[in-house]
Amino acid sequence: MGHNYLGRNRPIVGETPAGVGATYIVVEGYEDDVNIQVVANGTVTFTVDFTLQNILYDATAIAAVNVGNAEGRYVDPASAVWINEIASGVISAQSTMTDTPIFALRINVTAGTGSVGYVIAQA
Length: 123
Fold this sequence. Notes:
Layout: E1 3-5, E2 12-15, E3 21-26, E4 34-41, E5 44-51, H1 62-65, E6 83-86, E7 92-97, E8 104-112, E9 115-122
Antiparallel strand pairs: 1-2, 2-9, 3-8, 4-7, 4-9, 5-6, 5-8
């Protein structure tokens, strides 16, 4: 399943695919007031993380856009620096990130066969 984005200042609502894997959600351009609510569906262990890096990665163009830029303008989502916001082992949780302008969130399902529903709101 994907997520539903209805435009600026409207929530992003979705659900991760069932089973182990990462779901990446790019939020509205470096906003620093992001709220996420998550609910585990079934038996699942997961974390919610955020990154400050641009993960809109284009494998065919990455070499060209990063030339002359030591840190690179874009990064493969799997290689990005992710900062943990919600630790694993929770059934449902909510967190508001107000101090850091983030670029994207990752819901990383590390074990189980269930999925994770999410609602992301930005001010």
